[in-house]
Amino acid sequence: MKKLIFTSYAIILASIFLFSCTKDPIYVSYVTPDKEVCLTGTTAYDYVSKEFPIKQADVAALVTEEQLDQISSIMLKSGVKVQVSASGYNLDQISSIELYLKEKDATGLGQQIAYSDPIGLGATEVNMQLNGVNVKDMAIKDMTMTVKVLNKSGGNDPVCLKITSSTFEIKITP
Question: Which CATH number, 2.10.10, 2.60.120, 2.30.30, 1.20.5, labels domain 24-172?
């Protein structure tokens, strides 16, 4: 009986010790610099895309070598806003805006990471809706972010759009 009680007590202590040693995840933010996409005037109903590099070294510089192997996810979290760069202009001639991420030199657009809701008349900025896609490869590969803008039928006047700093949340699970 004493042996059973001792064994039970030892199991309980071991369980408490193991569970108390688990570490909470560590979160690190990676903020991309503002980007600008300029649309030339056109009468065509069409997409305009512009690509921007994201360097793996910039992401890796935020964590230790050990943490690099412990990254469980990288997700776009906040701060993505698209606004007209110059005063006196609005987004009336823009139908939609989408953001994609892919491995550098890969074909196609990659994974959609954010998109705009329908853009209201007179709007000068739009908050992007996030897709919640895990883009963990940013920690080990150079990537390309593509901004894809669709104008409305009838085309658009020349206008420049600024994509504000986008914040990616890096989750490290020790």
Answer: 2.60.120
pLDDT tens digits, one per residue of 120-169: 899 999 999 999 999 999 999 999 999 999 988 888 889 999 998 789 99
pTM of the model: 0.82
Rounded CA-CA distance 76/56 in Å is 15
Amino acid at 76: L
3-state helix, strand, coil in the chain (%, to 5): 20, 45, 40
Extents of the domains making up the chain: 24-172
Task: To the nearest 10°, report the CA torsion of 126, 110, 144, 45.
Answer: -50
Query: What is the per-residue pLDDT for 171?
Result: 96
**Tokens encoding 13:** 């202590």
User: Of how many residues is the chain composed?
Assistant: 174
Burial 129-151 (b: 16+ CB within 10 A, else e): ebbebebebbbebbbbbbbbbbb
Give residue-wise pLDDT tens across range 98-124.
Answer: 999 999 999 999 999 999 998 989 999
